[in-house]
Automatic annotation (TrEMBL):
<dbReference type="InterPro" id="IPR036511">
    <property type="entry name" value="TGT-like_sf"/>
</dbReference>
<protein>
    <recommendedName>
        <fullName>tRNA-guanosine(34) queuine transglycosylase</fullName>
        <ecNumber>2.4.2.64</ecNumber>
    </recommendedName>
</protein>
<dbReference type="InterPro" id="IPR004803">
    <property type="entry name" value="TGT"/>
</dbReference>
<feature type="signal peptide">
    <location>
        <begin position="1"/>
        <end position="19"/>
    </location>
</feature>
<keyword id="KW-0479">Metal-binding</keyword>
<keyword id="KW-0819">tRNA processing</keyword>
<dbReference type="GO" id="GO:0008479">
    <property type="term" value="F:tRNA-guanosine(34) queuine transglycosylase activity"/>
</dbReference>
<keyword id="KW-0808">Transferase</keyword>
<keyword id="KW-0732">Signal</keyword>
<dbReference type="GO" id="GO:0046872">
    <property type="term" value="F:metal ion binding"/>
</dbReference>
<dbReference type="Pfam" id="PF01702">
    <property type="entry name" value="TGT"/>
</dbReference>
<dbReference type="InterPro" id="IPR002616">
    <property type="entry name" value="tRNA_ribo_trans-like"/>
</dbReference>
<feature type="domain" description="tRNA-guanine(15) transglycosylase-like">
    <location>
        <begin position="16"/>
        <end position="366"/>
    </location>
</feature>
<dbReference type="GO" id="GO:0006400">
    <property type="term" value="P:tRNA modification"/>
</dbReference>
<dbReference type="GO" id="GO:0005829">
    <property type="term" value="C:cytosol"/>
</dbReference>
<keyword id="KW-0862">Zinc</keyword>
<keyword id="KW-0328">Glycosyltransferase</keyword>
């Protein structure tokens, strides 16, 4: 399968939205695709078999945490991540860089790399572009992410955004040079530049010149104004190569998935579906169902017809589990992950059969029956050619 390192074929389009076949070393992935996040090698509370049963063929794993425990060498000795976690699907590893933002009290960023305190024993670790590539090569993921310098999107410090944009470009060259397995692992570059169109333009132009197998749009989904968010997504999708996959990092709400697919994104990831499940919340077409609420006590309606869990259990039963049991969290995690897989499948099919605008309008009506649509989404969809 080495020959099929990455083959990306757009099979249907509706305006900017695209349905594609992404062939990776561990098989075919249909896009647009949502990739659930499993930090320690599995999605919290789910086994590899359960993840597969949810319909996933591409999941995300976290380099920073795997590099800490059990360590890249251990995964390598056990034959790579696929054997280690008995997962025969595709796997994308992040660079470990995002943890700079989420664990910033533990991190300092220098030209050399990111200086961390290990959460395991407090010792100092330096994550350089070279070390990130080394760990990801040991893990053996199908898609690896470059180490980028991330600045929180809500920051006001323009100098810092500029520094992060240019440093990310210097680091991509160090990543390319250090990447030892380009014949079996695909390295994606990450476009940075905050909310500034000029910085994004510089990052886009330079990243595209590196001619990588795929590109990610980074530095968003951090609480910034959605009116600015969608414009950056559109700018990136308008300029990134048509024949390469585009991965929007950190997006997992259904509305964002719909809008950003309309703008031309192919891959998404987010901890939200699994995390919200652990707090007793289920995703449905009608919106979020907070099953811990007393109103669901004794509710005999099934959760949602679109998933195995949703068809099998009543809201009342899941309410009892969600308030007390680990089983509840596992079932809701399975439900949310399968819900999103099915949701994206419907979205893809609507692009293929030319009914994407209908899919979008039906979705908006169902999620907002009062017709009170978020203004940013209306504007973004209009820019993508869909008038609500």
């Amino acid at each position: 399968w080495h020959a099929l390192l990455i083959s990306f074929e757009v099979t249907a389009m509706w305006n900017g939205a695209r349905a594609s076949r992404l062939i990776l070393p561990h098989g075919l992935v249909h896009t647009p695709v949502f990739m659930p996040v499993g930090t320690q090698g599995t999605i919290k509370g789910l086994t590899s078999e359960q993840i597969k049963a949810c319909g996933c063929r591409l999941i995300l794993s976290n380099t920073y945490h795997l590099g800490n425990r059990p360590g890249g060498e251990v995964v390598d000795e056990m034959g790579g991540i696929h054997k280690f976690m008995r997962w025969d699907g595709n796997l994308l590893t992040d660079s470990g860089g995002f943890q700079m933002v989420s664990l910033l009290k533990l991190a300092r960023i220098t030209e050399e790399g990111v200086l961390f305190q290990s959460p395991v024993n407090g010792s100092e670790m330096l994550l350089t572009p070279e070390r990130s590539m080394e760990i990801q090569n040991q893990i053996g993921s199908d898609i690896m992410m470059a180490l980028d310098d991330v600045c929180p999107s809500t920051s006001e410090d323009m100098k810092r955004f500029e520094e992060a944009t240019y440093r990310t470009l210097r680091w991509i060259d160090r990543c390319i040079k250090a990447h030892k397995k380009p014949h079996i692992q695909n390295l994606y570059g990450i476009v940075q530049g905050g909310l500034d169109p000029k910085l994004r333009e510089i990052s886009l132009k330079e990243m595209i010149q590196r001619n990588l197998p795929g590109y990610a749009i980074g530095g968003l989904a951090g609480g910034e104004d959605k009116a600015l968010f969608w414009r950056v997504v559109k700018q990136c999708c308008d300029h990134l190569p048509k024949n390469k996959p585009r991965y929007l990092m950190g997006v997992g709400y259904t509305l964002d998935l719909v809008v950003c697919s309309a703008l031309g994104c192919d891959q998404f990831d987010c901890v939200f579906p699994a995390r919200t499940a652990r707090f007793g919340t289920a995703m449905t077409k009608q919106g979020l169902v907070k099953l811990k609420k007393r109103e669901y006590r004794g509710d005999k309606t099934l959760l949602d017809p679109s998933t195995q869990v949703g068809r099998s259990y009543t809201r009342g039963y899941l309410h009892e589990l969600a308030t007390r049991e680990a089983t509840g969290s596992m079932l809701l995690t399975m439900h949310n992950i399968e819900f999103l897989q099915n949701f994206m499948k419907e979205l893809r099919e609507s692009i293929r059969n030319g009914s994407f605008p209908d899919f979008v309008r039906d979705f908006m009506k169902t999620e907002h029956p009062d017709g009170n649509y978020p203004k940013w989404a209306v504007n973004a969809l209009k820019a993508a050619g869909i008038d609500l």
